User: What shape does this take?
Amino acid sequence: MEILVILVPLALMLGGAGLVAFLWSLRSGQYDDLDGAAWRAIADDEPPQEAPAKR
Amino acid sequence: MQVTRDFSHYVREAGEGLRHIDLAVEGVHCAGCMAKIERGLSAIPDVTLARVNLTDRRVALEWKAGTLDPGRFIDRLEELGYKAYPFETESAEVAEVAESRFLLRCLGVAAFATMNVMMLSIPVWSGNVSDMLPEQRDFFHWLSALIALPAAAYAGQPFFRSAWRALSAKTTNMDVPISIGVILALGMSVVETIHHAEHAYFDAAIMLLTFLLVGRFLDQNMRRRTRAVAGNLAALKAETAAKFIGPDEISQVPVAAIHPGDIVLLRPGERCAVDGTVIEGRSEIDQSLITGETLYVTAEQGTPVYAGSMNISGSLRVRVSAASEATLLAEITRLLDNALQARSRYMRLADRASRLYAPVVHATALLTILGWVIAGASWHDAIVTGVAVLIITCPCALGLAIPTVQTVASGAMFKAGVLLNAGDAIERLAEADHVIFDKTGTLTLPELEVMNAADIPADIFELAGRLALSSHHPVAAAVAQAAGAKSPIVGAVEEAGQGVRATVDGVELRLGRPSFCGAEALVGVAALDPEASIVAFSKGTAKFILSVRQGLRPDAKAVIAALKARNIGIEILSGDREPAVKAAAEALDIPEWRAGVTPADKIARIEELKRRGAKVLMVGDGMNDAPSLAAAHVSMSPISAAHLSQATADLVFLGRPLAPVVAAIDAARKALHLMRQNLWLAIGYNVLAVPVAISGVVTPLIAAAAMSGSSILVMLNSLRARSGSREIV
Assistant: This one.
């Protein structure tokens, strides 16, 4: 049962890390535009250039 | 005179020599639009940030100070095919956003605590039936307390505050039993832990908060979104005024930047955006948005004009007495104040439920304690059982029953083009059994339409439309729009107060008063419609008569029929003249109508219906309707309504059709049905669970299972509000 001394703080730390990450993401405005974020994930990075006239 | 656009009012400093502006954009609805706008704007040199918010339909822009004029962004967006306008976040919206974030933070904290406490509770539950040592159990309980107590103190704030407000006002709401339940559950658990007892309810208390916060957050988020849309719509109306910044120099500035004492120019065909007094000029003005009267009023020096009036014929110089937050006709202000006071007395379904619920539950808990003491149990055991009753009855499902339905239903209404202004509007709308319509701008469309376009040869009509483009007169604008005219006729001359004329291929064209076109003879036949303005068009010797008026909303007749089919009483109360109201009432088959009604008369009529027990839905748009909108049980306005009416109405509907009125009533009735069903589900669960709790065999495991079970059941039931029958009319 001595393993609890390691496991319990470890579990709490992991939970706490999750909470901190959530609060950080909230603070940095990541929930402000959920619709847009869904689309941005699949958007192209570079604008598609004008198609070259000759091939 | 030179006209410039001035948006400096909306520009903010963003630090380090940057400037920031927020634009509301119309028609952004996909990733393609988002990419197109962001690339299009970023391509402008010196723009450092262009980011679209697809949820709120807005663009945030930053650029190097002093390099660009904000008007350029709007022009660029217009080239890309989007209408945009700067907007200023209203204080109401800022508050909603802050509240929404706070709830999300609370929810995050509560969910974290629930998961971790549950991780500690499950070993205790399984340990209790196997070989767990009491020391280990105590250790786990203390750990749970360490997590649950601070988390509950933080995440419970929305409930504790609201409960405290209710108690200080000597009333009760749903948050009172919630707060009592949570605090007692935590307090008892701490005491039990100190005494090395077997059961602690940290998990139940914090789980309750998590579930309730989910409901709260969803509710708040919907409200925030509605506010954002309403803010955008207000911004996109792009209300500006031509302000004199020199004796002969005019700047087109947003209304928000106009102050009392400024002098503005009101050109023909423009809608006045401020309240003020005419200091120079002579014109006819259309005050139908303010009084409901469709006849034009003559305005000259000294005439007061109100925001919403349309200037018809001549230019006016107006000294501003009040700008965006209009001062009103004193009479309307007084009526409005009275009516608003009366309305705040409505008690929401949730509060009515909690008013019954709290005493019953608390009495049951007390009786349980006394009962066990009389039956010979120790005070300690009796109190533990009593608190268990409180925990198991804690209105988890009850607290979710109404907000979840409200969220789903307001989402459904949002899709149907109805925005909710008031949180309790759904409940009140569902009860409505009598609808009072205003006529002008509500049953009819706010814009003018050509009624007899079909009788006129298409080529003639098109020519008339092109000629009409050269005039500022609103009637001419309606003709031009109806004809779909794009290119004006070169060399057209406007004769003030008469009409427009031009010569094409040697033939003279004239559009204007019948006398101006020599078409008086035709008028007698056409002037049957009392509301219509008659315009004549002549091409050489051929004469035509156009009848222009505010048309009924395209589906008005079907909507009235649909309302009748739902057994809802209908009547028209209008400030307009009798013939005009009568014509509309007959066209729509509404037997009950009154014309020439003043705002005070409207309220009197509503009060009379109230005394007879009717729940009145008032649908109106004019400033003269605002007091009756507030006096009615529930009220609705079209988006084209006067500011004041829109702010007073419980619901606002978008677009040209009237169908959202029926759609909203249907959605509200369905929602109320589901709310009641949810309350019964929650009560049914309590009826099953309470005897178990009273008998003293409840363990924390049973409490947790019962609580999450009933909450999930209620949430699933609420989702049924989403699937609505689609046929509206």
Summary: The CA atoms of residues 393 and 686 of chain B lie 6 Å apart. The first strand of chain B starts at residue 2 and ends at 5. Residues 725-729 of chain B have pLDDT under 50 and may be disordered. Chain B has six domains: 12-87, 94-224, 238-326, 349-415+670-729, 416-445+553-669, 446-550.
